[in-house]
Amino acid sequence: MAPEMGNVVGNWLTCDLYTDTHRLLGPGYFYHDQAQRLVEYVAHELRREFPQAAVYFVDEVQLGDFDAARQPDRTKLWEFEYALLPPSLYDTYATVPATHATALHEQHLEA
Predict the structure, then answer these.
(1) What is each CA distance from 62 to 58, 81, 86, 104, in whole angstroms?
(2) 53 and 69 in contact (C-beta within 8 Å)?
């Protein structure tokens, strides 16, 4: 059971896929087009199966569980490269830092 922070409570499932992130990244620390399409495809498939869950892609440096959303430290909320967030987390992620961009879709927030 995770500690409470805003609406982020409950059970968590972590699925780790380890890869050399540097091979996926292009200039400006953005994924290459093919890598971005793969990340988006996997994220959307996971969201389709688990629509109530947030899906995060994080850097390999974090090695393992993405704890930022479960910790009381809001400065770590945005320590991911890509995410699909359910409506229950819209308030938690309302303040978007300059390092990220978001797009509001019908049933999720893409960051």
Answers:
(1) 7, 12, 23, 27
(2) no
Cα separations (Å) of 60 from 11, 18, 54? 23, 7, 18
The pTM of this model reads 0.76
Residue 108, C-beta contacts closer than 8 angstroms, at least 6 positions apart: 47, 84, 85, 86, 87
Smallest CA-to-CA distance from 46 within 90, 14, 23, 79 is with 14
Which residue did the predictor score with more confidence, 34 or 15?
34
Domains of the chain: which residue ranges?
2-78
